Structure formats: C-alpha cells, structure tokens
Q: What sequence folds into this?
C-alpha cells in the first residue's frame, strides 16, 4: 500500500506569529520553523497502517527550503521518501492553490491513501484535504478520531457535532485525522541518522505542469491586518474563604441565578 | 444592495436548522435582497418555516435519503456545482461545521473558486471581504476575494446573533440531482451521539468549563453539581483534559473545539491558553478560578478568584443553592 502524508511546516506554535506589515506574508525571519504538530498524527497514522498492512509512506510538503526540516522529521519517524515543493512564487498561496500543487505532486507519486491533519495550526483553513480529494476524484474521509484498515476498506470514526459517525470507505481515498487519533512516536537516533540517506525529491510547480501557480494566482488578498481588541481585565481577588460567596453574588448581579 | 444573491448552506438535524444557519441568514440579509438557503437532508422541508423566518426566500432542498447514507461532501458539492451554474449566486456562506467544511472545500476545488475559512465577519462594500482572526485571536485579518464567482466563505458559529426577519416559510425547490455510485465510496454505516444531559454547550446561558486544575476526572462531578444548582448551565472543558480522556471531545471549548458566548463563562482550573480563550472570550462575562495569580485567564476575567478549585466549587454549589432558596 502506498500512503502519502501531507505535512506542513509552520512557525513554532509556542511563539506568537507575526505578519509582515508591508507584504502581509508570515514573518519567517528569526522564527523557528517546525512540522505542524497536527501533522505528527498523520505521519503516525500512516506508519501504523503500513506496519500492519505492508507498504510505504511518502511525505510531501509545499513550502520554502527550510521546510526540509519538517520533511526530515517525518523521514526520521519512519517515512521512506520525501517530496518538497518549493518556489518563491508559492508564497502567499491560498488553500485552493496549495491543494492544486499538493494534488499534482501526489498524483505524480501515485497513492492508495493520502493522509492530512484536519487543519493546520497556523492557517487553520481546514479545507485543503477536501480540495485535494476533489482534485484527485476520491472520497475525503474527514475528522477521523480512529482509523482501521480492513482489507481495502477504511473504517473510521468521524467526529461530528453530536458524537461520531462510523464511516466505511474504499481506497483510494484522502483521510484527515484529528489530534489525539494516536500517540505520535519520537524519531529514534537511528531514525534521525537514517533520514539523511533517504530519497528526497525537490520539485517546483513547473515540474508539475503548474508553472506560474502560486501567490500571484491566488483568488484572495489580505487587505488589512490589525491587533484584535483586548478584553479589559476586571477584578481579581484572593480567596480568603469568601471566594465562593463573591462568585455567587456576581452570578446574581448578572441575573443568571 | 451590494450583492445580487447570497446562499446559505444549512445543516439540518432532525428537521431543525443548525443555529449557525440562522446566524448566517441574519447576516446575509444585510448583504443582499435575495437570500436563499440550501439543505441536504431528508427532513429539510420541516426547516423551511424557520429558515424563511430568518430571511431565506427559497430553500433548495435535497431530500433523497441517499444523501444521509454517505459522506455528504462529495455528492453535495456535485449537486451544488450544478445549482450554482444555474442560479449564479454571488456568495455562498457555510457554517464552520464538519459537513459544511467538507462541502465547501470540495465545491471550491470543483468550481476553481477561492474559499476563505475560519471567518468571523463578512462584508460586501467593495467586493466580498472576510475577517478572520489568527495566532490565537491576537490578530484580525481582512481578506478580499479576487476573481471567480461565487465567493465561498466558511464562518465560525456564534459570529452573528440570529434574529428573525418575520419572513414567511421559504419556498421549497427540490434538488433532484441523484447520489450516484461514485459517491457511495464513503458510506456512513452508523451515527453515534455522545450522551448529553441539560442544555447544549453552545446554547446554555451559563457555561462552566473545567481544566487540568481539577486534578482528577472524577472532580468533573463537582462541575455537574454546580451546573445543576445554577440550572440552565452546561459543562465544558479545556483540550488538555479532553486529550487526557477525562471527558469527550464534544465538551471541548476553543480553537479546535466549540465557540461559546454565554452570559457567564466560568473557567475552573484552566490556565487560559490562547487556543482556549479564542473559543470563550466572546462571553458577556467571565469568571475564573485558578490557584496561580499569574494565570493568563485572569487577564480576561471580569471576576477572578485566586484559590483552590476543590475548595471553592463545593462552597459555590452551597452558596448558589442558598440564593436560589
Ligand atoms: C493547535 C492547537 C489547538 C488547540 N486547541 C485547543 C482548544 O480548542 N481548546 C483548548 O482548551 N485548548 C486547546 N489547545 C491547548 C492549549 O494550548 C492548552 O494547552 C490547554 O488549553 C490547556 O488546558 P488547561 O488550561 O486545562 O491546562 P493547563 O494549562 O495545565 O492549566 C491548568 C491550570 O489549573 C491551575 N490549577 C491547578 N491546580 C489547581 C487547583 N487546585 N485550583 C485552582 N487552579 C488550579 C493551574 O494554575 C493552571 O493554570 C490547543 C493547542 C494547540 C497547539
Ligand atoms: N503547504 C502544505 N504542505 C503540505 N501539506 C499541507 C500544506 N498545507 C496544508 N497541508 C495539509 O492539509 C492539512 C490542513 O491544512 P489547512 O487546510 O491549510 O488548514 C494540513 O494539516 C496538512 O496536512
């Protein structure tokens, strides 16, 4: 089975990101770039599936050269091959453009299953997986909180507003996994060393017959960036045995009791 | 008005439109004189009155039960693509629900038009612009749609208040596109609901959320008692305790969980990480109990109490009971 995992590289989510006030691009200078923590679940899901069912995991990422670290991390975790699609023109790509580029790379590589996270931690658009599925003309089994493969049938518990749906899908398919679907492994020292000698394809949109596709062709532009208004802080008291009483008074004052 | 025609995708559950659909219809009325709804559900027609009362003149309804037997994204995107070609709406609004995201994502790719997700507001003064907030809601970003109609926007629930327009029931126009074999590649074989008692988290006037500071899963029982004592209150949670398996994901509040805007939000043993506060900072009032006086949650709280939740919550249950008599 051939599993392709999409991993995105993002500014370290533990630091507050910034946009360049002029270009409105994400400021990358001086910011640590890491594999999106959400994508670790996708890599882990892929590795578990090939470990029980046989096959190979390829990881694909679209982003600047620095994104190599994210790809290498997935290789160190156990993926067999990496693909990085980079081009200055891809900066500022929107969700649809991103999906086009990823879908073209995935198609070129061949796949039985594509795995993504449900949404990226920085962009948080959460539509790239569905768009990839449409472009590849396969089902998108989304928001998986558990995944099993039974022969060539994918059995998934899909998160819903009320609980979950039990979904069965045939391969090939796109699968998006939620955080918590599994326990991502840490790369071993051996894995980290081995990652350096694994095959790595570096592509540009031109290699995918998508020359010129990127930020310039995006169907949307950022027109304004502003700090969100802060909520004013109120009163903070130390509980001297009367904390509960003060809260109850507050609830009365707010007319909820 | 600015736009010729705006469509709202309505999630329907047992004949009831999702609250976000009514919120979006309310907003859509300010953007266009022609507001219409689209729904894929065998009992969509039962929702025509409520959708109409919030501004939908027409309801395009796919009532073939086959839509409920498969993952909705693919058949609904196909049907919508045909409908869009016929009726040419300028803007499609989706609530940020699981099905809404699936349908919108596929539809955008199918039509080759841009989609903007995670929206908090939408305006149509000079082209369609969607506001989103990023980096844990520290920055607001306005993004304008360029070429390609329709514009597709996915908006977070609770971004607008639903208000009735007093309109008549929407005129139901059937969507007759069949669910073909291709869409049966992903089937829904069962739907399971988490057991929930009391009011819904998104609708309750008081939300009491617990975090890691409760120390032990069994202490969530204290929050249930408090909710009971207050009445009309729901219990939520931080992601830390959902990930730890203390409570189900359906209780999670925050960026990757639910957005709530109650009259009063009570954060119990929650530190106040940005990814949590983005889901609750729209509450009218916030109360926080935390033993660490430097916890970021106190920066948002109207009333903050520095102390031990295990001591304060049981006392609060008694205080509330005493006041209610
Ligand atoms: C991409 C991403 C998405 C995320 N999405 C969400 C989301 O949707 N929702 C969400 O909640 N989080 C989300 N998070 C996680 C978030 O960053 C925090 O880790 C999480 O909210 C912390 O939960 P907590 O406040 O319960 O735990 P902690 O941060 O551990 O805080 C526990 C608090 O309890 C206090 N405490 C301990 N004991 C007591 C006591 N006896 N009495 C009083 N106070 C006590 C401590 O002082 C501390 O402040 C997300 C993170 C990422 C990276
Ligand atoms: N530039 C990218 N490179 C690789 N994968 C991506 C990229 N952008 C999005 N994805 C995948 O799509 C998922 C959802 O992203 P998004 O729709 O952008 O929130 C991510 O978690 C990744 O798995």
A:
């Amino acid at each position: 089975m051939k599993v392709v995992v999409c991993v995105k590289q993002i500014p370290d989510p533990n630091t507050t990101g910034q946009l360049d006030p002029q270009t409105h691009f994400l400021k990358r200078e001086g910011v640590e770039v890491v594999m999106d923590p959400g994508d670790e679940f996708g890599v882990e899901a892929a590795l578990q599936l090939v470990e029980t069912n046989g096959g190979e995991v390829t990881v694909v990422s679209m982003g600047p050269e620095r994104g190599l670290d994210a790809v290498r991390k997935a290789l160190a975790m156990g993926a067999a091959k990496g693909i990085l699609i980079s081009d200055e023109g891809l900066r500022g790509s929107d969700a649809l453009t991103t999906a086009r580029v990823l879908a073209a790379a995935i198609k070129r590589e061949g796949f039985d299953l594509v795995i993504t996270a449900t949404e990226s931690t920085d962009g948080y658009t959460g539509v790239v997986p569905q768009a990839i599925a449409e472009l590849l003309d396969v089902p998108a089994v989304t928001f998986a909180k558990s995944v099993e493969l039974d022969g060539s049938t994918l059995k998934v518990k899909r998160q819903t507003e009320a609980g979950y749906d039990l979904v069965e899908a045939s391969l090939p398919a796109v699968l998006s996994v939620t955080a918590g679907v599994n326990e991502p492994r840490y790369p071993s020292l051996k894995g980290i060393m081995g990652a350096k000698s694994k095959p790595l394809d570096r592509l540009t949109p031109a290699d995918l017959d998508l020359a010129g596709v990127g930020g310039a062709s995006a169907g949307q532009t950022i027109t304004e960036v502003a700090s969100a208004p802060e909520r004013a802080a109120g009163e903070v008291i130390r509980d001297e045995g009367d904390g509960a009483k003060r809260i109850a008074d507050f609830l009365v004052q707010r007319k909820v009791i | 008005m600015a736009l010729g025609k705006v469509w709202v995708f309505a999630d329907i559950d047992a004949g009831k439109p999702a609250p976000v659909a009514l919120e979006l219809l309310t907003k859509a009325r300010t953007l266009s004189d022609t507001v219409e709804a689209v729904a894929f559900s065998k009992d969509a027609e039962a929702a025509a009155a409520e959708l109409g009362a919030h501004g939908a003149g027409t309801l395009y309804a796919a009532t073939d039960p086959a839509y409920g037997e498969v993952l909705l994204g693919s058949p609904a995107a196909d049907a919508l693509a045909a409908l869009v070609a016929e009726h040419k709406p300028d803007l499609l609004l989706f609530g940020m629900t699981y099905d809404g995201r699936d349908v919108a994502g596929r539809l955008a790719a199918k039509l080759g038009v841009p989609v903007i997700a995670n929206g908090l507001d939408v305006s149509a003064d000079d082209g369609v612009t969607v506001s989103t907030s990023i980096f844990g809601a520290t920055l607001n970003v306005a993004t304008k749609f360029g070429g390609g109609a329709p514009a597709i926007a996915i908006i977070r629930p609770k971004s607008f208040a639903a208000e009735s327009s007093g309109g008549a029931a929407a005129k139901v126009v059937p969507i007759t596109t069949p669910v073909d074999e291709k869409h049966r590649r992903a089937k829904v074989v069962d739907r399971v609901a988490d057991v929930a008692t009391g009011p819904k988290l998104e609708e309750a006037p008081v939300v009491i959320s617990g975090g890691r500071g409760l120390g032990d899963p069994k202490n969530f029982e204290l929050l249930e008692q408090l909710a009971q004592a207050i009445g009309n209150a729901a219990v939520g949670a931080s992601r830390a305790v959902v990930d730890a398996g203390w409570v189900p994901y359906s209780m999670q509040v925050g960026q990757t969980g639910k957005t709530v805007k109650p009259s009063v939000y009570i954060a119990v043993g929650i530190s106040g990480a940005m990814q949590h506060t983005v889901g609750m900072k729209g509450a009218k009032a916030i109360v926080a109990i935390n033993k660490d006086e430097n916890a970021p949650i106190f920066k948002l709280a109207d009333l903050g109490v520095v102390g031990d939740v295990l001591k304060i919550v049981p006392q609060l249950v008694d205080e509330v009971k005493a006041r209610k008599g």
Notes: DSSP finds six helices and 13 strands in chain A. Chain A has a mean pLDDT of 92.
